[in-house]
């Protein structure tokens, strides 16, 4: 019974520890660079010239992923009802395959979108 109660604080503790280590290490690195005379402008992330907006890339990839999943369910149902395949094989196989294909198409479209801008 005690193990169920302690899991949630352990998860939050691990997340806090990772965030603490990340930010404290980043702060120490930045202080060391400033002490050596590095320009502080290297810490500011600027928008690349000609880069596509982040929201366009996210929406494009999510849309293609969902299209791939929808087509996969349709193809899986065709495989089950017309070809007589088992549901436990047809649906997961087509969903993973066509979702991956959708993400691959999204990746290539994102590269093309960044080349245009």
UniProtKB/TrEMBL annotation:
Coiled coil: none annotated. Keywords: Membrane, Transmembrane, Transmembrane helix. InterPro entries: DUF6249. The chain crosses the membrane at residues 6-23, 57-83, 89-109. Residues 7-110 form the DUF6249 domain. Signal peptide: none annotated. The keyword Membrane applies. It holds the Pfam family DUF6249. The keyword Protein transport does not apply. It comes from the Bacteria. This is DUF6249 domain-containing protein.
